[in-house]
Amino acid sequence: MSTELRPRLSRATIAHQVRDDLREQIKSGALSAGTKVPSEAECCDIYGVSRATVREAYRLLEQEGLIETRHGSGRYVLHGANVIVQGEVKLMESALDVLRGLNYEPKLEVLRIEERAATAGEASEFGIPVGSRMVEVERAYVHGRQLLVHTTNLIDVDRLPKPIERMDWTSSLATAYRAVGREITSGFSDIAATHLPSDVAQKFEIPDASAWLTFDGPLFDQHGEFLWFSHECWWNDLRPLRVVTRPATD
Predict the structure, then answer these.
(1) Cβ burial, residue 129 (10 Å; 0-12/13-18/19+)
(2) What is this structure's pTM?
(3) pLDDT value at position 208?
(4) What CATH number did the domain enclosing 41 receive?
(5) Is the domain of 65 the same as that of 100?
(6) Last residue of some domain: 62, 86, 110?
(7) Do 236 and 210 contact (CB within 8 A), yes or no?
(8) Using an 8 Å Cβ cutoff, are 77 and 64 in contact?
(9) DSSP secondary-structure letter at 33?
(10) Sign for the pseudo-dihedral over CA of 183, 188, 192, 195
(11) How buried is 66 (Cβ within 10 angstroms: 0-12 exposed, 13-18 middle, 19+ buried)?
(12) Does residue 240 form part of some domain?
């Protein structure tokens, strides 16, 4: 196992490095299905980190469906884990990074910025009072004049990484939060086929029959705080998914 971890990093960041190293071993087959992973004490010795950091790394692996805990026995690599890693879609990766990885040169166009009061449903989701200040930002990721991704993000103004008038909406939100020490570490998405809003389709001259895939859901930081709700529409097959099935475990 690799023991080269970057010094002077936060525990959350180091936990992600430990997680990533173990994921690479699952991907390569060094940790195969059914294999018992190192104990917390062994991992502490291997990586030179605290037990709390190791527990967080294992918690992240369990969230991804790569390992399971068998009480009284330890943690084991699940069957199909290497398939999940081999075919993964990096849902925590920013849209800009995903598109650049596909050899596009995306630029962000801001279509709309609207401040408004939180509805009862939004207040419940964010855990804030009804009527709290929200900002809704609609943006387009374009390559030349080709629309690749259309997004609408809803954010509690009080949770922005900087005052609203100083936000650069033409750059990645994840990067802005990272600059103030808040890593986007988890989230979930409801996924469905859809059509673009008519005004957006008209603006970018998108045919009505075009295929788009939506990803709707919240994103959380390393402390579990709800940062923003994301609605993303991806063109055609830019963001393929792989569904892995396996028997349920007790």
Answers:
(1) exposed
(2) 0.66
(3) 78
(4) 1.10.10.10
(5) no
(6) 86
(7) yes
(8) no
(9) T
(10) negative
(11) buried
(12) no
What angle do the packed helices 11-28 and 40-47 form, to 10 degrees? 100
Rounded CA separation 135/157 (Å): 6
Residue 4 falls inside a structural domain? no
> What CATH number corresponds to the domain at position 111?
3.40.1410.10
Q: What local confidence, expressed as pLDDT, does residue 107 receive?
A: 94
Q: CB atoms < 10 A from the CB of 161, how many?
A: 17
Q: What was the pLDDT predicted at 188?
A: 79
- Give the chain's domain count: 2
Residue ranges making up the domain that contains 30: 11-86
Q: Which of 86, 120, 152 is the last residue of a domain?
A: 86
Is 77 within a domain?
Answer: yes
Buried b (16+ CB within 10 A) or exposed e, 141-156: bbeeeebbbbbbbbbb
Mean pLDDT by 10 residues, the chain (250 residues): 41 79 89 92 93 92 88 88 61 79 93 97 92 97 95 97 95 93 85 91 88 91 88 86 58
Tell me how crowded residue 117 is: count the other CB atoms within 10 A of its CB. 12
**Which tokens go with 48?**
């030179």
Question: Does one domain contain both 221 and 106?
Answer: yes
Same domain for 119 and 205?
yes
Residues ≥6 apart with Cβ < 8 Å to 139: 108, 109, 110, 111, 150, 151, 152, 153, 169
Rg (CA), the chain: 20
Q: Say what the pLDDT of residue 84 is.
A: 66
